[in-house]
TrEMBL record:
Its EC number is 2.7.4.8. It comes from Craterilacuibacter sinensis. This is Guanylate kinase. It is found in: Cytoplasm. PANTHER family: GUANYLATE KINASE, GUANYLATE KINASE-RELATED. Residues 6-184 form the Guanylate kinase-like domain. GO terms for cellular component: cytosol. The lineage of its organism: Bacteria, Pseudomonadati, Pseudomonadota, Betaproteobacteria, Neisseriales. Essential for recycling GMP and indirectly, cGMP. InterPro entries: GK/Ca_channel_bsu, Guanylate_kin-like_dom, Guanylate_kinase, Guanylate_kinase_CS, P-loop_NTPase. GO terms for molecular function: ATP binding; GMP kinase activity.
Amino acid sequence: MSMSTGSIFIVVAPSGAGKTSLVAALLKAASDVELSVSFTTRAPRAGEVDGQHYHFVSRDAFEAMIAAGDFLEYAEVYGNYYGTSVRWIRERTAAGHDILLEIDWQGARQVREIFPDAVGIFILPPSLQVLESRLRGRGTDSTEVVERRLAEARAEIALVGEYDYIVVNDEFEQARTDLLAVVRAVQLRAPRQCERLARVLAQMQPAG
């Protein structure tokens, strides 16, 4: 089997839609998909490991990387920078690895300007009422923050038409199955399979 170029999967969702849990479940089920580890200027949270959850850097270091053109995409969210290394993405996809980016809608647009074939997946809550319940159930945000996140969610949901797939996270297991189905369908597309299975297919061609 020959080497094929890897795919880029972009997973976007409003805060509270369950994106992080779904991505973790997907990566466990699809060991051939790698999570892109973003750079950020925010402080590590309890249990977060540098290089595993994020690359934690200073604001000055991040802005130096911006100036050097090191990022495929970056954005400032709630006062902190987040960005994806363009060199790492190019190296891994060129080596045939599938990469998943768990980013916001701004980052998704930036990525697809450079990689228009990247597969966009939007995680949608079943309703705004359920989303609000999830956000308040966290018990970590003030009423003002919850209201702001809900307003932002409405704006993000208005952009769902920009994505290739929409997965509704109502029942978690169904949403996980749907997300995995999207990944597998992309991996089995004919152009990619023809590239990957070139030698096998050549042996199956009619003689003469």
